[in-house]
Amino acid sequence: MSDSQLYDVIVVGGGPAGSTIAWSLARRGVRVAIVERANFPREKVCGDFVEPAGLRILQAMGIREALEAATSSPITSTRIYLGPRLGFRGAIPYYQPEHGLLPHGSIIPRHVLDHRLLEQAEQASAKVYAGCAARGIRREDGLIHVDVHSADVNLTLRSRLIVGADGAESIVARSFNLEMADRAHISIAQRAYIEGVEVQEGEATVWFDEDIAPGYGWMFPMSGGRANVGVGILSESCHRQGHSVPGAFAATIERLKIRHPGCARVKLISKPIGGVVKMYGGAGSNYFDGGVLIGDAGAFADPMTGEGITQGMESALIASSTLLKALELGRSDAAFLANFERDFRRYFDPSMLFLSFCAAVMRNWHFREFWMRSSLRGCERAMADGNFARVAGAAFGGLNVHPFGILQHIGASLLRYFGEGTINTLRHLVSEGSLGREAMLGDLLEWQSAWKRSASDDPDWHAAWLSDLLRRAAQLGPTLLTLENPRIRGLSI
């Protein structure tokens, strides 16, 4: 074996997480190999949406401007459908230009983004084994051994450390018995590209329907009247309720044509493709003797939205610091690499634990109508109250999640909602007719009915769900008092 086949770090997977950590390490003189089974550019199941924190990382890597210039207009506004009703339309309230963040997101197709990131890692001196499958991963005599195969390559790479950045079906995670398979934290998605879209420039669309709960659909506009459209549904619901993701995708296209005035004549221009996303609520320790897991391999996606591009790059930068120190000290044991979990928990937990709790609450299929009602009410308030929209809305895609602030807003709303007093309540019920009665009584009746249905339909699952809620509530602890989410300031690059 030649010296060229001995590396400091082998990264399995060349997506955003893998390319980012390879770039970060290689630019500091670390000998890095990337093993990627695909030949780039390649398609990837994703909404193609890069949020402001992700754009900040791309900016630090020196490639943001070129990527944005070659793709689409910035995303600055949104419309939200709750069933057939338009609940919200306006500027995205929680995008604030602070700490280097831009006040917009961008749609960057993954075949463009991933290819450019991989090139950036290669330019920093990382060796790329493209179109090569990693097999037979093992640790022997203090070194990692990775068998690499393709039509033209059949060799074994060795390294001191390995990084699993190879997605939700990570072979690295399986090789070290760290694969996460909990359906409660796995989403199944399908997406395609459409054309014929006529929307306000920079306006994305998301929608929630009872038959895909808990889950949602999205349409992210691109240039030339094209858009990325897709749906994501919790795997547990697919299993328990018999959901078909391809069926839901087909139905959501037809609904979009009816609901959205700019989508009446859209048509598919690509074959729908599907995949899975593993979310932070199921994230484990993500370290082992000889390496770490990042990105989708480590379940770093947002528990509420399923977004994972930014989180994958952030997990890569955190892991980069751990591995640099490990190489400096000559350490590759799990006891030292546990620093990775300490650091990513410190960075992600203040927002992600709260979002995981919210996602756990919404797992219960029987409450889907109640959540639709409540979300519609929240959207109505957000249209009238910018501060409420900024704080509470962050739970559904914002970066700076303030758990205590969100709970304060919700608590104040409930007190105001149920504490109007007898005269005001009667006036509300009498003068505002059926809509008022639905608002004041329908929600309470639906909440009560949902509890009964859940408890009687499957008592064992109901009890397990309640136990999970209590456990996650207990985990929140001091994170509820977080004044500023660490993710708002970002990481040193």
SSE layout and pairing:
Layout: E1 6-12, H1 16-26, E2 32-36, E3 49-50, H2 52-60, H3 64-69, E4 77-82, E5 85-91, E6 106-107, H4 110-123, E7 127-130, E8 133-140, E9 143-149, E10 154-164, H5 171-175, E11 186-195, E12 203-208, E13 215-221, E14 226-234, H6 235-241, H7 245-259, E15 267-268, E16 273-278, E17 287-288, E18 291-293, H8 309-329, H9 334-361, H10 368-384, H11 386-392, H12 403-418, H13 422-431, H14 433-457, H15 459-476
Parallel strand pairs: 1-2, 1-10, 2-7, 4-12, 10-18
Antiparallel strand pairs: 3-6, 4-5, 8-9, 9-10, 11-14, 11-15, 11-16, 12-13, 13-14, 17-18
Helix pairs in contact: 1-4, 1-8, 2-8, 8-9, 9-15, 10-11, 10-14, 13-14, 14-15
CATH superfamily of the largest domain: FAD/NAD(P)-binding domain
CATH secondary-structure class of the largest domain: Alpha Beta
Overall average residue pLDDT: 89
Structural class: alpha/beta
Can you name the CATH architecture of the largest domain?
A: 3-Layer(bba) Sandwich
The description of the largest β-sheet is: 8 strands, mixed
Which regions contain 5 or more consecutive residues with pLDDT less than 50?
A: 420-436
Count of DSSP-assigned helices = 15
Range of helix content: 40-55%
